What we know:
2 domains; about 10% strand; Rossmann fold; four-stranded antiparallel beta sheet; 10 strands; about 625 residues; disordered N terminus; ABC transporter transmembrane region fold; binds adenosine-5'-triphosphate; binds magnesium ion; alpha/beta; six-stranded mixed beta sheet
Amino acid sequence: xxxxxxxxxxxxxxxxxxxxxxxxxxxxxxxxxxxxxxxxxxxxxxxxxxxxxxxxxxxxxxxxxxxxxxxxxxxxxxxxxxxxxxxxxxxxxxxxxxxxxxxxxxxxxxxxxxxxxxxxxxxxxxxxxxxxxxxxxxxxxxxxxxxxxxxxxxxxxxxxxxxxxxxxxxxxxxxxxxxxxxxxxxxxxxxxxxxxxxxxxxxxxxxxxxxxxxxxxxxxxxxxxxxxxxxxxxxxxxxxxxxxxxxxxxxxxxxxxxxxxxxxxxxxxxxxxxxxxxxxxxxxxxxxxxxxxxxxxxxxxxxxxxxxxxxxxxxxxxxxxxxxxxxxxxxxxxxxxxxxxxxxxxxxxxxxxxxxxxxxxxxxxxxxxxxxxxxxxxxxxxxxxxxxxxxxxxxxxxxxxxxxxxxxxxxxxxxxxxxxxxxxxxxxxxxxxxxxxxxxxxxxxxxxxxxxxxxxxxxxxxxxxxxxxxxxxxxxxxxxxxxxxxxxxxxxxxxxxxxxxxxxxxxxxxxxxxxxxxxxxxxxxxxxxxxxxxxxxxxxxxxxxxxxxxxxxxxxxxxxxxxxxxxxxxxxxxxxxxxxxxxxxxxxxxxxxxxxxxxxxxxxxxxxxxxxxxxxxxxxxxxxxxxx
Length: 628
Ligand SMILES: Nc1ncnc2c1ncn2[C@@H]1O[C@H](COP(=O)(O)OP(=O)(O)OP(=O)(O)O)[C@@H](O)[C@H]1O
Ligand SMILES: [Mg+2]
């Protein structure tokens, strides 16, 4: 992943914003529910004041304040008249009022817990939905990236980004919709309540609040950097194990389990070290926050009490009004600090997740190499020819030219064979026909039109590819064949199996077409798997065929079976076939001999033999007869 994008918290919002926008309606509902439950849960604190003041502790000499606080005024105007009217319950003095207050508190708690329930349900589901959208987009995006990306891909790292990092993004999303919606509202409401209960004391407290948030703001960027490094290491580790598992046969055959284990441990050690750095930064910021939140409250409260005592001693108005209002104040302030702590903690997690968001969006920042231009034309079918015109090509990040001034015209229906030493550029020619890469210079022309001006998808619809390493999905044989054309009828499917020489094999499998094959076709022999891929290509019924050494790995018996299948496949199609065993391509209309990315000889088998050049030598070597 070459490009680095740096996400700030704002940047993260910007990039995740579209995912939130897609779920706009849910988000609105969540904010509403979050606000209601945050306000509601706090409002019970208000009722503490009248409840405690029923104890009539105010007669205590230290609290002899004259002025009513805004809360007392509010309660006196609205709550007290109602409470006084309850005398009719006929209970002992004040008891009915206390019961009424408690019932009111319980009622509020019930209502707002229900709101909270729906808030949590919706908000967590929203995060899950958003993250699923994100993962889906990522999968869509990555499968659309060009072969240039995929041939250099680090599968494990990519998988790690799509799973671990996307899940970490889920965390940030949950927090964004949950804490970041609810906590600030709760803080504001609590502050308002505290101010209404004890205006002066609240002012004293507020000055102190920023100190709680400061450590995280300070250490946050460091956490983010470390988190990204940690996730990178985790990606390395996934990368390593994916590689080992996909090459498990080699690992076992060479008895390298221990070595792989050691390597894995070394990679994981990197993860441990980076994690330690990150955890240290997180612990530091949280501990500092805790210090200010706990120690700080004590200090400020102490100062307030002393000031109050001094003022009262001087026969002036104190800071606190009544015991009840002081209780309400302390409860509200405790909530403020608790939520500030929650928020700062959330920020610490968000900073840590930003590393993951970076990694997720690094993938989206990659440019899909082969993309249709806005003017790309539809393609309906090959009429005349496929032509390479002065094509130069080098693979991305490779200094060497794989094809140099390559010229070739293949007529519709022609069968072209490509031969040559390893590394001559044969597979490259097929890659360019499929437009898995774009040429560096020159052009590939389809019926005279530049391949780059056609819709790539349309062009691919007319191609079928059979590769040297048969690739089968982990599914039934039927599903693997139908991959060529999912809407094919049963009769067409059976015909493809017959033409691919599969019938005998299928008859011997107890589950026949429904047999499940493992990854890359294990449970089938190489030749059987190859014939399944041929059936797949047959079913697709594409007019242009690209066959890359489809028979080279097979023994002679299964080679002749596959060869027969291929002959059936090639009938009437424009075919590019690569083969090392020259016997299999004798019948080609034209044989091209490639060397160092150029055509050095071409002609029919007979004419090339007669010419007595490279091809003739290769042929002699293979059939074992000395040159005449
Ligand atoms: N993905 C790639 N990235 C960089 N270079 C590549 C890539 N694939 C092939 N090459 C280089 O391009 C040149 C041509 O490779 P190509 O695969 O076309 O050879 P080939 O004729 O198919 O060989 P073989 O018979 O061994 O399959 C080689 O020098 C090779 O090293
Ligand atoms: Mg090749």
